[in-house]
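Follow-up to my earlier ticket, as requested here are the two runs.
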Amino acid sequence: MTYFVGILDGQGDVWGVRVPDLPGCHGGGPSPEAAIQDAISALADMAEEARDVKPRDALAIARDPSAEFNSAAGESFVMLPAFHVTGVPTKANISLDKGQLAAIDAAAKARGLTRSTFVVSAAMEKIAADG
């Protein structure tokens, strides 16, 4: 998987993430976690543009004056996974414990989602959180 470096800044309930390698790609939210999730979503929306970009590492971005990274102001780097969503459904066969499948189905139903949508959403959140 490809990762882009984001620059996280903010305080209180105003946070932002900008992606120097993709001008115009940014996220925001009331917490660092929300801003990171929003930036990951923005990065997915820019998948076509991101495909042609070779992401730089954090050191290269820190040394690039145009990135305007300011650690003295409390900015930090975050790694953002770049998901390429093709829009082409693909069938996958997985095995689950019967009780776990029942819990997944109940949670999906409570949220008004299909099993597939729920499982994919949960998996992508986990991937993003571990990024």
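Run two:
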Amino acid sequence: MIFSRCIVREPCPEMVGGLTNAGLGLPDFTLAKIQHKAYVEALRTCGCTAISLAAEPQYPDSVFVEDTALLIIGELAILSRPGAESRRGETALMKPVLEEFFPVIEVIKAPGTLDAGDVLEAGQHYFIGLSKRTNAKGAEQLIHILEKHGKTGSTISLKKFLHLKTGVAYLGNNSVLLAGELKHCPAFADFIRFEVDDDEEYAANSIMLNGTLLMPAGYPKILDKLVRSGYHIIQVDTSEFQKLDGGISCLSLRF
């Protein structure tokens, strides 16, 4: 699958008060801006044109655009209904942007909730995490939409991770990067598995983009394992977004 565009949103100063359970302290907004700029440059290096949206101070977590929509290249966009009530207005901001590129837009509706960070695309199949942010009703709606478009979906119940993609990345060619509770998940038993040590768990949230694996900097053990397996990797420092439970995938919508 070739990605040509990525949607990002500039961080706002209010992000320092964003939602978090990480316990890593407050982010440094000045450093976050520097890191975000480097992240966008990495997306461009991977061959994507960046569509940069203005910061939205009324939504401290809006830099994490991935949660607002699931994009199926060449077919449709699905607007989510975030599990955190404070984030639900973000989808209305994203809708006109997506209408420029997608002729069909579906919507997850109440009482369903769904963060797209809970959705992992693996070819024609989509794994959906049931989490504090995504409930069964939201997953059922998503599976129904996917099936209308010739795709399939299934759910995975999470006990610890905020989102499914906190602990898994699809690398293509039936391969996955796995961490934490997902290392023993039967849904991934038939995949080629790269397991991330517990002390490097954050590295599991990475993205494969046009043949390059974009992953967070500072995780030498899994980096060495992937390099020895032939992966081309770009590392990006996202420490200030980690303080808000955010990772590499959270900061962009790729299509």
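The only thing I checked on run two: The first helix runs from residue 29 to 45. Let me know what else you need.
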